[in-house]
Amino acid sequence: MTEALERFLSDLDAEIRKHGNWGEVADYIPELARVDPAQFGIAVSLADGRIVTAGQARQQFSIQSISKVFSLACVLGRIGEQVWTRVGREPSGRPFDSILLLEQEHGRPRNPFINAGAIVTTDELLTGRQPKEALSEILAFVRAAAEDDDIHIDKAVARSEAETGFRNVALANYLKSFGNLRNQPEMTLGTYFHQCAIEMSCVQLARAGRVLAGLPDAPRLLTALKSRRINALMMMCGHYDGSGDFAFRVGLPGKSGVGGGILLIAPERASIAIWSPGLNVYGNSMMGTHAAEQLARRMEWSVFGS
Ligand code: GLN
């Protein structure tokens, strides 16, 4: 199977490079606006411990919202079910940076993967601690999951977002006005921008995702129940208002980031990371989604059956 997968990924890489309809890079974060959209990499970590790659699988990129999966895992480890008093677990059907439902729902964000929800989970991680300590916890989780210590935060990206992230400033202040932010908005946001600026390659991210796929060689960092639940949230909310379309086309839990990364989980089979920085209208990787669709179909990995 590994050889067939290798061939498939290298054909997919060639096809995308020839016909790529790349989409647009995120331009509201100046550091990300400078990235060439016409890039592609993929890494598939399999249950037998092997990792199959194609394209720019070792090139590091900004994981952005994929970090929300790891911060949620840390919060669940810390306070468990209590987190659901501050954030919901329903799809929002709204863009990732939407403020609309917050008023209606009295400052309790719909889910931990939209920005408002992730700002709340990061705020929770800051309880009684300094930003440095909260960030160390997230980084330690990611490094342990990937079994790779060479994973860092790109401070220039964090700074760039801090200078222009006015929507997030609005969201944090709005959350604070409802009493759903414990720390000062600047402190929570500073931490959130830094967690989003973690840089990883597809190989590192696919390795980190093994804990969610429940692969035999994955470090034991999450209970099976927790990883099932995070997968459910990824399926329903991982691609914002594009989550339905993603589930329809791919049939696997996934989490996107505006850096063009996608973490895709085929439970008990594989953990997959895809990167292509050009985005579709939902802010999800255009060619990454295409690749996820082709891969899931070819491998018959959809959770809805083969
Ligand atoms: N840091 C980005 C933001 O808050 C993350 C968004 C994303 O990746 N969808 O806007």
TrEMBL record:
<feature type="binding site">
    <location>
        <position position="258"/>
    </location>
    <ligand>
        <name>substrate</name>
    </ligand>
</feature>
<dbReference type="InterPro" id="IPR012338">
    <property type="entry name" value="Beta-lactam/transpept-like"/>
</dbReference>
<dbReference type="InterPro" id="IPR015868">
    <property type="entry name" value="Glutaminase"/>
</dbReference>
<feature type="binding site">
    <location>
        <position position="192"/>
    </location>
    <ligand>
        <name>substrate</name>
    </ligand>
</feature>
<dbReference type="GO" id="GO:0006537">
    <property type="term" value="P:glutamate biosynthetic process"/>
</dbReference>
<feature type="binding site">
    <location>
        <position position="161"/>
    </location>
    <ligand>
        <name>substrate</name>
    </ligand>
</feature>
<feature type="binding site">
    <location>
        <position position="65"/>
    </location>
    <ligand>
        <name>substrate</name>
    </ligand>
</feature>
<dbReference type="GO" id="GO:0006543">
    <property type="term" value="P:L-glutamine catabolic process"/>
</dbReference>
<keyword id="KW-0007">Acetylation</keyword>
<feature type="binding site">
    <location>
        <position position="168"/>
    </location>
    <ligand>
        <name>substrate</name>
    </ligand>
</feature>
<comment type="similarity">
    <text>Belongs to the glutaminase family.</text>
</comment>
<dbReference type="GO" id="GO:0004359">
    <property type="term" value="F:glutaminase activity"/>
</dbReference>
<feature type="binding site">
    <location>
        <position position="240"/>
    </location>
    <ligand>
        <name>substrate</name>
    </ligand>
</feature>
<protein>
    <recommendedName>
        <fullName>Glutaminase</fullName>
        <ecNumber>3.5.1.2</ecNumber>
    </recommendedName>
</protein>
<comment type="subunit">
    <text>Homotetramer.</text>
</comment>
<keyword id="KW-0378">Hydrolase</keyword>
<feature type="binding site">
    <location>
        <position position="115"/>
    </location>
    <ligand>
        <name>substrate</name>
    </ligand>
</feature>
<dbReference type="Pfam" id="PF04960">
    <property type="entry name" value="Glutaminase"/>
</dbReference>
